């Protein structure tokens, strides 16, 4: 299930975020975390079952749209539908918003949309 990011999860969140392209550098990671902690409209969520295995970050770009900035799943938990479940969770949390992707998250969001239209479980 999706849970809101809290400071106590910072190390786990930074670890998951480091799997994203362009987030390998520690300074860039810290900058991204600070953005989620302080910038208006930026929200970070973690996926937790027994352990925290995924992360999804969004920015509310308008009253109608939210953009997925980051989406990451622990490599040992990939191909289990966690990424799709996180996107579905965001859609449930913000049903009034159109969920969009940025250039880094677009390929995954497109894959989820394609799988949805092909009849696969999302």
TrEMBL record:
Keyword Acyltransferase included in the entry's annotation: yes
GO molecular function per UniProt: acyltransferase activity, transferring groups other than amino-acyl groups
PROSITE patterns named in the record: GNAT (PS51186)
Pfam name, any one: Acetyltransf_1
Transmembrane annotation, as ranges: none
Annotated keywords: Acyltransferase, Transferase
Superkingdom of this protein's organism: Bacteria
N-acetyltransferase domain residues: 3-122
Signal peptide: none
UniProt protein name: N-acetyltransferase
Native organism: Neobacillus piezotolerans
